[in-house]
Design a protein that fits this description.
By secondary structure, the chain is an all-alpha fold. 78% of the residues lie in helices and 0% in strands. It is built from 3 helices and no strands. The longest helix is centred in the last third of the chain and has 56 residues. The protein starts with 12 loop residues before the first helix and ends in a 7-residue tail after the last helix.
């Protein structure tokens, strides 16, 4: 279970700014969300392209053959768009998982460092 994030102290803005500059605190969650939605927007443009292609094929060809070709282009296009959405989602989730592992390892390292600093050192002879 992840520990709760500490509440910011008054005047902690400089500390937060320094954490961002030194990569102590990462902005990956916000950036990944933006990248995810931008990627979905590109995939939506691809879907509209497939719809336009299907309409173009339907208008260019003969009546029955055009509808048959347009339907196959439309179904194939939506299958490709569905696969792209699943791949994009899994790609973004992989990055979120990697960064969360990094955060957890950082917290574990801080806990071990704190434990080692509290434990009294045995006298050396």
């Amino acid at each position: 279970m992840r520990p709760s994030k500490p509440k910011p102290r008054p005047g902690a803005g400089a500390s937060m700014f320094w954490d961002l500059l030194t990569f102590e605190r990462l902005m990956t969650n916000q950036v990944i969300h933006l990248i995810y939605w931008a990627g979905l927007g590109v995939i939506a443009l691809i879907a509209f392209g497939f719809i336009g292609t299907a309409v173009g094929v339907a208008l260019r060809e003969e009546l029955f053959m055009g509808i048959l070709l347009a339907l196959s282009v439309l179904v194939g296009g939506f299958l490709v768009v569905g696969a792209l959405v699943l791949l994009w989602r899994s790609f973004c989730e992989l990055y979120v998982a990697i960064f969360r592992l990094s955060d957890d390892l950082h917290a574990m390292r801080q806990a071990v460092d704190a434990e080692n600093s509290v434990r009294p050192q045995p006298p050396q002879s």
